[in-house]
Specification:
It is built from nine helices and seven strands, in the order H-H-H-H-H-H-H-E-E-E-H-E-E-E-E-H. It is of the alpha+beta class and 249 residues long. The chain folds into two domains: 10-116, Serine Threonine Protein Phosphatase 5, Tetratricopeptide repeat, CATH 1.25.40; 127-243, ADP-ribosylation fold (Alpha-Beta Barrel). It has a four-stranded antiparallel β-sheet with strand order 1-4-7-2. Strands 3-6-5 form a three-stranded antiparallel β-sheet, with no helix packed on it. Helix 1 runs parallel beside helix 3 (44-56), helix 2 packs antiparallel against helix 3 and helix 3 (44-56) packs antiparallel against helix 4. The longest helix has 18 residues, at 61-78. The two termini are 34 Å apart.
Length: 249
């Protein structure tokens, strides 16, 4: 089955818990949580994510390299759209480890591999966008709206994803009193990985989140799927209040 980033995935939840512990200054408990995520992972997708987080916390370059290679090996075993965007990040990190270990030949090889995987996303979709706006097929969604997360910010891009779970939450947080909707959309121009999520918490763009300066065309509406629970909405709003980080616009 194709991997699909899911905030309810046990490894994702443990990794998020580890990051929260780390932010709170509890590095020891965070490290134990990341290791628990790896040990309890039921598949290579979970091991790929957990091994990456364990690698980042290693002070020893050889240990860091070993965990990064484990993460890359698990990603390659899947070779899926959900993990392919992580290849530049993993190869760059492996190159840095080789540099620290004074092995410039291997470092150069991995830098070249990282570069070979860069470029515009080639995700085939389908793509989704969450909102409370009442739209119909053929309508266009355009950039220039106000951010759902920063009311003082006018957005230069329109955002979308190939993972339907994210837009359900975006629809729940969107302004307005209309019904929460998740639309199937198609980009009308080039698009890029959303830098607000890419490499921020997980390697690459495993959430398959994108943005474009060109409009999105409404193709249809995704119906029948459950929206986020009240607890999930509350937790997400609390996370937003705590983070208040910079939005790359």
């Amino acid at each position: 089955m194709t991997p699909r980033f899911d905030p309810k995935h046990p490894v994702v939840r443990l990794c998020m818990a580890g990051m929260a512990l780390e932010d709170a200054g509890n590095a020891g408990a965070a490290a134990a949580t990341f290791r628990k995520a790896y040990d309890e992972a039921a598949d290579d997708y979970g091991r790929f994510l957990a091994a990456y987080h364990i690698a980042l916390r290693q002070q020893d370059a050889a240990e860091r390299l070993a965990w990064l290679e484990t993460s890359l090996r698990c990603a390659r075993s899947l070779d899926d759209e959900d993990v392919r965007s992580a290849y530049p990040t993993l190869h760059d990190a492996i190159a840095a480890s080789h540099e620290a270990l004074r092995d410039p030949e291997r470092a150069a090889r991995h830098r070249a591999l990282a570069d070979s995987f860069r470029g515009a996303p080639a995700d085939p979709g389908p793509f989704y966008h969450g909102t409370k706006a009442d739209l119909k097929p053929g309508d266009l969604l355009t950039a220039g709206g106000t951010s759902n997360y920063r009311p003082d910010l006018t957005m230069n891009h329109i955002y979308f994803t190939a993972n339907a779970a994210g837009p359900r939450l975006a629809a729940a947080l969107a302004k307005g009193d209309g019904r929460e909707r998740v639309y199937v959309v198609e980009p009308t121009g080039p698009f890029e990985n959303d830098p607000n999520v890419t490499d921020r918490k997980f390697p690459g763009n495993v959430t398959r989140s994108y943005r474009s300066q060109d409009p999105l065309r409404i193709v249809g509406e995704e119906t029948g799927a459950e929206g986020p629970s009240d607890a999930e909405r509350r937790r997400w709003r609390e996370d937003l209040e705590r983070s208040r980080g910079e939005i790359i616009n």
